[in-house]
Amino acid sequence: PLPGCQCRRPAALSVSTSSNAASELLLAAAFVSDAQYNRNIPFKTSPEAVRLYYLYNHWIMRTATYFFIFLNLSLAVFEEPAVYPLPFLATSLVEVLCLLVFFGRLTHFAKITPRNVFWKDTKNICIMVAILLSLTDLAIYGALRIYNIKSIRWSRIARPIFLINFAESRQIRRAFRSIRNTLPEITYVFLLFMFSLLMFSLMALKLFGERNLQTAEGLPYFRNYLEIVFDLYVLVTTANSPDVMMPAFDFSSWYALFFIAFVIVNTYIFMSLFLAVVYNNYKKHLKNEIRKLAYMKHRKMIEAFNLLKEEEGAQPVVREARWKQLVKLVAPDISNSHRELLLRISDDEQKGFIDKKSFVQLADLLNIQVITLKIRSHPLGQWMPRVYKSAVSQFLRSMVRHRGFVWTYDAIILINAIFIALDEETPYISYAEWVFLALYIIEILLKVYTYEPRVFFGKNQFWNWFDTLIIFAALTATILNTTLRSTTKYNSQQILDIVFILRVLRLIRIVDSIQRFRVIMNTLINIVPTMLTFGGLTLVVYCIFAIIGMELFHGKIQFFPVNSNAPYALECGNPALKDSLFARGKYCKNNFNNFASSFIVLMELTVVNQWHDILCGGRPAKLYFIAFHIVMVIIIVNIFVSFILEAFFVEYSLEKSEVETGSAGCGGYSTILLEKWEWMLTVTLLLPSGYRTVDALLQRMFEAEIPPEDEGPSFEEILNLSPTAAGPSHLTSERAV
């Protein structure tokens, strides 16, 4: 071989090795990031695909996807029938733009996933079909509109598919899977319920049909079997109780026993049975979903470890330098001190490498919120040291720190609440409000005097910010109200209402003073983010039923001002509603004439109070409302209650255990590390992460059962886990290398 070739070969080999190491590091970072955020997208592992995968998961891409999803859904507000009408050309161009974005996002997803996986994924097929249907419907509707032929936009009902089926909406898909998995058991209970309803309806027909009874409106009472079924179905929701019973009860008091038996069996037993079945199945399938997430997270961390591992004796490890490069890729925004802290936890013996057990915990460590408090002296102690450190000043600061100071102001708040309830026009009451406001301002000033201001107003000091903002907003509003009343004849009732509300909000501060209240409040706050999943689920159902309702009932009911002289104004624009409960109740605004009104009607139906009065329009309307009641109230609301129960049990038990016993460690509950640096004392707090959800808590509990040395099942086995499969030991013998 030529000498030149011999010289270049080691350089080429070095470049190749360096390139492979960089690719492996990038791939390992993708696995760790997926484990951190519980993503389970199967992606190609080539360097180009991994870079595209990073781009796919970038927050700008995800935010843009959500923006166009909600923009597409909001088009219903501007399309006929519209709340704010826009030209058809404008809405159609926006819809085409949204569909192009969705197609681009789907194409991007196809580039990063294996072809066989992409085409087997049902959600991708649903998105493509929805895009095709929307474009077809848009073209047909536009062509018919040119020739002034009335048509309907039937593809609008498919718009929620984009919210459900994109990879970003995995939480909503999981909720739908819970519903789908629960349906078989619910179906059996529902069939029994319907059998009971039909039997009671038949008994009612035989008992009351031949009695020639009449309702309060003079209509025949219980003579039509289908009407009886509907009336008793409404009675299950208690919306028409006791009205539906009164004609029979007036005829004979003994007939009340029939309705009492019906309510006990169908309202209390069957509705409770629905909740029990939904909760039991939801809990079972939730645990299966969480188990899949735990296995998937564990598996991805093992895959990342295998890419970066080196041999240290007989033990595979990841070198410290390699670990730092990985963390810098996964979490580029964290500070160097934060990174060093994570390294100290992972390599507590400072051996220069991280073993497999510590490496697997990296995803959890990255989800832990780290707060660095720089303990500084008070500025007044530097500016006026003699005054600030005097005996009087020290006594004043000790008094503010004492628990009695908090109790005193809690008592002041309660007394202030009594004064708020009294008549504002009384001069003494008006003057007293200034006294209370002055006391609150003194409280804030004393606390700022006692505690270092930058610590007192730290980003995690919610209650301090809350107190200060409420007090100074109330001061501003009170001064403005007094000024306007003294200098002009302006009626400042609205400002006065704001002042009252701000004063009442001060009462919330008492909640933080009582430990058990604080536990419950923290529990509610912690489950709020996960409740957004069911907000999305409700949005999907509402959108579908709102669009169907607008197509079925648009224009059948009209709202007129009180003094309107329009024909049939008292009948909501529909002569068929003359003397109906709907017209007499002045429910004319409850209509499906636009998207916003439809949402309000559906919200009223979800509450179920007086929903039978809102219903009008014959049997099609009854079928529509019953279908909505079954889907929303019986299924989704029960799923939501099941979630709240499970979430509250988990969160409350953890919050309570933290209060009673305290805990420390990288599991996420309160580790305090003190480090003496050359220039300051730094207190680093490891607190529960903002990413802490009920799913994450349940997942952490399940991960405790997985042995660190167990690599677990393969990705394919994880995705095929059934709810009846055993725990971690069930699959420890089947390992993917």
TrEMBL record:
Main location: membrane
Domain Ion transport: 63-284, 407-653
GO (cellular component) term, any one: membrane
InterPro entries: Ion_trans_dom, Volt_channel_dom_sf
GO molecular function: monoatomic ion channel activity
Topology within the bilayer: Multi-pass membrane protein
Keywords, ordered alphabetically: Membrane, Transmembrane, Transmembrane helix
Subcellular location: Membrane
Transmembrane domains' residue ranges: 59-78, 84-104, 125-144, 186-205, 225-242, 254-282, 404-422, 428-450, 462-480, 523-548, 592-611, 623-645
Protein name, entry field: BUB1 mitotic checkpoint serine/threonine kinase
